[in-house]
Specification:
heterodimer, B: mainly alpha, 32 helices, 75% helix, elongated
């Protein structure tokens, strides 16, 4: 199964990177989400798989009995999942905001932080900041 | 000695403040500091002449073998006297020449800082401190040349001088480090003892070439001579000080300093002597064509530096004597003539020698200074210049090997010197013009004091050649030769070849002056070749560097996110593959295990969903595929003993899909921006990265992980943390601070998202 998972991780990485190479920002965001899945799976697999028993300690024992899965990578991945979600959510909102202001999701038109003024001119009137 | 170097620096810092109070007096008062330094070094003369060098050392960067140490022997002393003595007169001259200028305090600052740096160069007892002071002189020279910074010409010249000398400085640093490596020390007095070892060292030639690159750029030797005439854009006090008598001689100082340990080898002789004599010939040709006062002086300065370099290259006792004598002579008359040129231009606002005349009666003191210096330059007895010229001839005649060529070159130099001497010290003062210069007037005492004093010094020292030889030139020659050699200077050597050459020189010089107009026309003919000179190489180099930096910025910092990602992935794939191939090949997978059917099912689910997400044209499909990948991954977690992960993944994936769907209707449709070719190229690259990650995973599986940490957590979970779910215990107990950090990240992301969403809401309200 490790070999199979290794191949799957490779496929996930390929798809994620392919999406990140697109010009459309939304694809890049989806690619990012895929990439974090792939990375999590990589950590989980690389630490060694153990089919079955979770790292739990029975009620009547002070240490786990018999073979069990390694708890350390699980703790790492758990943290990574949650943080990945936080970043993804923020990215999505940021992207939505950027799209509202710039009016495109073409990364080639988001090449500089200084282009806002020029880009504003090309926007439809109702979308311009009107304070 | 440390204080003599620090004093000018200290004064440099205070100069702008003091100048506002002292106004016109500042030149005179500031000059007291270099004067004090001069007197201090004068008091050292007897001890040095007795052959006892002074060495002082202060600990600095001991771990690197760098100490702040100073070494005073005959050579350093000669330079220190010139720097401080001429420096004092230049400061006075500055007060008179630039006193009315609003920015003169800046000039004082840079000038005095230069003085300290230059003293540092010649007094350093350590290679690294020498280099630091060396670079400081380049920087202060840059500031002084660019003093009239509103002029394009001054800025260009300043930058050129900085780039040329700074580039040479880098080569010098490399050479000095190699030298320190070869000898095992950066301490100059120690290195001076290890000449035989250094000359036979395998690194001798690289060290020599690098040192010469530093010395030749600094001292404006061919083919780097072009920056010096351009540097005449500096105000005259700076030209008189830096670009005739001191800074440009730093290269000479370096050569003379290294002569005992690096000299006396065939490469030294050929490179230094031929480099110097080539410079001589080129500068002689260029000088003969000039009519502008300061440019004339600049080209003869290049020539004089070439002459000293040639003598150092020859390296015989005669030649070293000639080099040191001529160094002293040249510093005295050239600084004088520069100050004279500045005085003339200050008074008449004319720069062309052919337009000047009849100033002798109007400017008697300047004319006196000019006359004294001119006669010394022309090499007329009883001036010190005559002795200098005679010893140069002797050196040429006594040189081994290329005697004829060298002697002819030296003759040419002397003729040009005489010619230029006449043009500057005679022509403006004692010829009559059709229309007299009505504006002309004698400058104030500050303008002519320096020329008169320095000019007379050339005469006085010429009267007492024995004393000069004993106290000034002799110790310097001894330091340059590495051993004490008897030096005697005198005017009369009997009727010999050198005397005959002197007579020929005078005759040729006067002839050249008489027939200068046809001569110039003759020399103008090859002028078409000028643009092909070495300066063109400099311009090409600068343009080339700008071009390369522009191109590489366009290539690497182009603002296209996917180009960055592309580059990063390319290296991510290429470098490990290279390492894998070079380092024993791809790890061979262990035996192909059997799969359970559900495992294969999950694998197909994840892979299919991922490919679907990458290829679909519909936003909704992509999001659904993303969700499918997530659920697939959580199934993997379930089957491999990670129920906590599976639960979290499940919840998070659901949330992610929800958020995507919620935001989705506000987002644009998928658009196609790229061509088919780019798609295939990206697929290839992404595929390569995937293969690499697969290999990496397989390789990682083979690594044995030390079980200590996990075992520790498992064993201590109940006794220490009273928890039975080990993963949870790790998160909330053993590594709780990490979890805190994680929560913080989430909180910040949530706040950020909330803020952005509020912004949208507020805008909508405003619009309504």
């Amino acid at each position: 199964m490790e070999i199979l998972l290794a191949i799957i991780i490779g496929i996930l990485f390929s798809c994620a990177l392919y999406l990140m190479l697109r010009r459309s920002l939304i694809k890049v965001v989806i690619g990012l989400a895929l990439l974090s899945q792939a990375a999590n799976l990589l950590i989980f697999t690389a630490a060694g798989l153990h089919r079955g028993d979770p790292p739990l300690i029975p009620e009547d024992a002070v240490a786990p009995i018999g073979a069990h899965a390694d708890p350390l990578p699980q703790a790492l991945v758990l943290t990574a999942i949650v943080i990945g979600f936080g970043v993804l959510a923020f990215t999505l909102v940021l992207f939505q905001r950027a799209y509202m202001i710039i009016g495109t999701d073409d990364l080639d038109q988001m090449r500089s932080t200084d282009t806002e003024s020029t880009d504003l001119k090309t926007l439809p009137q109702q979308e311009i900041h009107e304070h | 000695m440390l204080y003599t170097i620090l004093a000018p620096f200290l004064l440099a810092v205070l100069a702008p403040l003091l100048h506002h109070r002292l106004k016109d007096l500042s030149g005179w008062l500031f000059a007291l500091v270099p004067l004090g330094v001069f007197l201090y070094y004068l008091s050292q003369v007897p001890q040095i002449a007795a052959g006892e060098p002074v060495y002082q050392s202060y600990a600095w960067v001991e771990s690197l073998g760098i100490s702040l140490s100073f070494y005073l022997d005959g050579l350093s002393l000669l330079f220190a006297l010139l720097i401080s003595g001429i420096g004092a007169l230049i400061v006075v001259y500055t007060g008179a020449y630039l006193g009315q200028d609003v920015n003169v305090h800046r000039f004082y600052l840079a000038l005095l800082a230069f003085m300290g740096s230059m003293l540092g160069v010649v007094l350093s007892g350590n290679l690294i401190t020498l280099f630091i002071f060396w670079e400081l002189t380049s920087i202060t020279s840059y500031l002084l040349i660019g003093y009239d910074h509103h002029k394009q010409e001054a800025r260009t010249a300043a930058l050129q001088a900085l780039l040329v000398t700074g580039g040479g400085g880098l080569a010098l640093l490399a050479g000095l480090i190699l030298m320190g490596h070869a000898t095992g020390t950066y301490d100059i007095p120690t290195i001076l003892q290890s000449g035989d070892m250094l000359r036979e060292h395998a690194l001798y030639l690289p060290i020599l070439l690098l040192l010469l690159a530093g010395a030749f750029t600094k001292s404006a030797q061919f083919p780097f001579h072009f920056w010096l005439p351009n540097a005449m854009a500096a105000p005259t006090p700076a030209s008189a000080y830096l670009h005739s008598s001191t800074m440009v001689k730093a290269g000479i100082y370096l050569l003379a300093r290294m002569q005992p340990v690096m000299g006396d080898t065939p490469p030294w002789f050929y490179l230094v002597a031929i480099g110097g004599s080539l410079t001589l010939v080129v500068s002689a040709y260029l000088a003969m064509r000039q009519v502008i006062l300061k440019k004339l002086l600049a080209y003869t300065t290049v020539g004089a530096l070439g002459l000293i370099t040639t003598c150092l290259g020859i390296g015989t006792d005669y030649a070293l004597k000639a080099a040191m004598t001529f160094l002293l002579v040249h510093a005295l008359y050239k600084a004088t003539l520069f100050m004279v040129a500045g005085g003339i231009s200050h008074s008449t606002h004319l720069y062309d020698t052919e337009k000047l005349g009849g100033l002798g009666r109007i400017m008697p003191f300047t004319a006196l200074g000019a006359g004294l210096a001119g006669l010394s330059m022309a090499g007329i007895p009883p001036f010190l210049g005559f002795i200098g010229k005679e010893s140069v001839y002797e050196a040429g005649l006594a040189s081994p090997g290329a005697m004829l060529w060298l002697t002819l070159t030296l003759l040419l130099a002397a003729v040009v010197n005489l010619f230029v001497g006449l043009l500057i010290a005679w022509k403006p003062f004692w010829t009559t013009l059709d229309a007299p210069l009505s504006e002309a007037h004698e400058g104030n005492v500050g303008l002519w004091l320096g020329p008169v004093l320095l000019g007379s010094l050339g005469l006085i020292l010429g009267f007492i050649p024995g004393t000069t030889a004993l106290y000034i030139v002799g110790p310097a020659v001894a330091a340059t030769a590495g051993e004490a050699i008897p030096v005697s200077l005198s005017h009369w050597h009997g009727f010999n070849l050198a005397l005959l050459l002197s007579v020929i020189t005078v005759a040729l010089g006067i002839l050249a002056y008489r027939f200068r107009h046809p001569l110039r026309r003759l020399l103008e003919a090859p002028g078409r070749l000028d643009p092909a000179g070495p300066e063109r190489g400099y311009h090409r180099l600068v343009e080339g560097m700008l071009w390369v930096s522009k191109k590489q910025t366009c290539l690497l910092q182009n603002g296209y996110l996917r180009v960055y990602i592309f580059t990063v992935i390319s290296f991510l794939v290429a470098l490990p593959i290279y390492t894998l191939v070079a380092g024993g090949g791809v790890p061979i997978p262990p035996e192909w295990p059997s799969f359970k059917l559900y495992e294969l099912g999950i694998a197909f689910l994840i892979a299919g969903a991922a490919i679907g997400a990458a290829c679909t044209n519909s936003r909704l499909t992509a999001v659904v595929c993303l969700g499918a990948v997530g659920y697939g991954v959580s199934l993997v977690y379930i089957f491999y003993g990670a129920p906590d992960l599976a639960m979290t993944q499940f919840v998070i994936e659901t949330l992610t899909v929800l958020i995507f769907v919620l935001v989705l209707y506000r987002l644009p449709r998928f658009t196609h921006f790229t061509s088919e070719f780019v798609k295939y190229r990206d697929m290839l690259l992404a595929g390569g990265a995937g293969v690499f990650v697969t290999i990496l995973t397989i390789a990682a599986l083979k690594v044995e992980i030390a079980p200590t940490i996990s075992t520790y957590f498992a064993e201590q979970s109940v006794p220490m943390a009273h928890g039975r779910n080990i993963v949870n215990v790790i998160l909330v107990d053993f590594r709780s601070l990490d979890t805190m950090g994680e929560l913080l990240v989430l909180a910040i992301a949530a706040l950020g998202a909330y803020g952005l969403l509020r912004l949208n809401k507020d805008e909508k309200k405003d619009k309504v």
